[in-house]
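Teaching note: in complex prediction, the entire set of molecules is handled at once rather than each chain in isolation. The prompt given to students was simply: 'Predict the structure of this complex.' The entities are:
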Amino acid sequence: MQNESLEVSRMASKLLRKTFMEPLGKNNPVFVQILGICSTLAVTNKLQNTMVMTLGVMFTTALSSLTISILRNYIPSRIRMMVETMVIATFVIIVDIVLKAFYPEMWKQLGPYVGLIITNCIIMGRIEAFALQNKPMLSLVDGLASGLGYAYVLLAIAFVRELLGTGSLWGFQILGSWWTNWSIMIMPPGGFFVLAIIIWIIREKIMKEAKND
Amino acid sequence: MKAKRTFYSERIYPLLFMFAVTFFCILITSGLQLATEDRATANELAFTRRAILNAGGVAFENTTEGIEEAFQSKIEEQDGYYVADSNSGKRYIIPVEGPGLWGAITIMAGFEEDLSTFSGIAIVSQNETPGLGARIEEPWFTEQFRGKQAPFTLVEEGTADAPTEVDAITGATRTSEYFKNITNRAANDAKRIIGGE
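The expected output is the structure of the full assembly:
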């Protein structure tokens, strides 16, 4: 009897770890599923903006996955998308209102992008693919991990773009006056270049090697 | 787990459910909105006032209280414009709005007593491309207007030196063009509204 419950809890923690690790690595929303690309390209020309944006996305994916998972047995399946959108929009508006009240500068800089978190495919994707079938705590972990998986890729892109595009990081000048800013890096094409290169490196080098091991 | 399909489960329940979810969501968001409204309005006001102080070249401490204090002691509000006291006489600040590339750009333009030399400009709102046109918010761009006279001509970034030349922003030619028009208009407005010409 005791062995059995031990076995169950071991399996549960294994599942929890798997749920948490997958979106960070082999099931990453950005470089494997190629989701959320519009915001990946739009907000990655400054580290600071990217940080706030990804925190907003993490907050929204985690809590909307949790909420939908709690409600999952009560939501009529034919109106589930409406309910999902409503819940996501509520959390995004909360982020927007809080930024507006407490970080007005950041709110002004991010402009329409905060509202556009609603349309981030990762959030709806995780709800449809995961939260509707799984228990609340697991869904929360999945949502949070998906947000994290999104966040670190975006921060990596923003790091490259801000450094090459303006010679600074987090708004502080890093490279000296000898550095010529690569204006293309902070323009939209720069986002495509860096994203594509990062996806290529990860898929061709890291993921293939991991598979061969 | 196939429940029986009834009129209630197919029509009424989804409707009630959606209604309840919507009601609850709106309750949360509007509650939060109302709770933070005062703060948001205060931020907005401080933002506009900071722009006025910057345009008038008035020194202040960059906190909500600092802005408020400097504004109360140094700025006098007139009909459609503001007057700032400075060591070199009065300065006049007017709000000007004009089209940008994606939406309206609103600025505060400050003038010395002669109403033609800029004492500074500050952006109140803009929707230009982040990283390109939005660089009009950067200090190097707004600072360059100080002490210059309209009408302006645009030159390549980093080459302006005559008193009527301003640096354009590389990669944001059209925003620079729109911005130049707004500043030129500001100079005309200042003469018309404050000077009474």
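Point out the following to students. The beta strands of chain A are 168-169, 172-173. Chain A has nine helices and two strands.
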